[in-house]
């Protein structure tokens, strides 16, 4: 009996030792607060979305820094370690005509575990504000944003651009998730963590990524895609989301601490590139002039717009869960789709920050 027990104990110890910890499974470096991983959003991409999460460095490899559509000198090769040597006026401009759909703009399809293999497609940035208040930002990068069709008409396709940074932000209080921000075009929506739809572990909130635009929504289905200052006479632009392809950003991320006072990023793991986060220019082509045969402009809306700035411009030290943009920050207490007409409606379950 003694012998059996010893063997059983040894087998038990071996199982415990060889089982990967949650941290190992997620490949997160040491020091990242456990709750930042435990409650990290899990993303559902649309099954028809041709433009999947993209590797940061691959994007640099296929673009040229340009100002006024002319190449400018800069570090060569351009890497995630030296990108910030470029000025804020720079547009990382595609080397290929994006209307030909070169394969690199389509990103990487996550495998069955949700991992984008051999591709770093996410940056997770933790802003510890002290006294147990922590904002964790989960950024997702896509090389291409397809803007969708107004009223489903193929000639009314606006807002395509190279480079697309989307994010969720979870506000924690003493390690407990309070609210979740979902970025959507120029703005987004905030929900109380407790009402968000959860992954199979009952912990991780689900973010639904819209087909092509990658706007993040708390529920699946159809959402209005509001274009600021645009009142089209013929219907709205819609975002389509569904439980399509599972994407787990934790499996392909770099992790950083953000120091708001110094406006600086420190990686949790030595050797992780950081310079790209300090780049103040645009991650895609400048809006093509109407003399460019690819461009179409109707009602002031361009078919191809300029690429966005990076994570540093997403108000990483915001006061409210919503970025400060002059609008009321409604912390939704029930799950609702985005609708232009009830964007400012406060329901009983909601809180206003
Ligand atoms: C998804 O986007 C692709 C192209 O970007 C388009 O061809 C397809 O029709 C879209 N599907 C839906 C449901 O919007
Ligand atoms: C850019 O980064 C690469 C490696 O990351 C390096 O080889 C190259 O020298 C850098 N260029 C400059 C100008 O710093």
UniProtKB/TrEMBL annotation:
Keywords: Signal
Cross-referenced Pfam families: Vps62
Keyword Iron: no
Keyword Nuclease in record: no
Protein name as catalogued: Vacuolar protein sorting-associated protein 62
Organism for this UniProt entry: Periconia macrospinosa
Signal peptide per UniProt: 1-18
